[in-house]
């Protein structure tokens, strides 16, 4: 996260200015990891489609 946002303060500022949900998720994850340093967070993606046979 430090590579992406430089500091938690900059991430907080960015979220306050834009209210983008991805910044909120990253901020909550960062706070969680500060309090739980032995945990890992798995990042995944969900694809929504109207077709049922991908």
Which properties best describe this structure?
single chain, 54 residues, mainly alpha
What does this protein look like?
- The protein is an all-alpha fold and 54 residues long.
- It has one domain (1-54).
- The chain is built from three helices and no strands.
- The chain is flat and about 45 Å long.
- The model has no long low-confidence stretch (mean pLDDT 88).
Question: Helical percent range?
Answer: 55-70%
* Count of spatially separate domains: 1
Average pLDDT over all residues: 88
Shape assignment: flat
Please report which band the strand proportion falls in: under 5%, 5-15%, 15-25%, 25-35%, 35-45% or over 45%. Answer: under 5%
Number of helices: 3
Counting DSSP E segments of at least 2 residues, the number of strands comes to 0
Order of helices and strands: HHH
Low-confidence stretches: none
Termini gap: 32 Å
Given the helix and strand composition, which structural class is it? Answer: mainly alpha
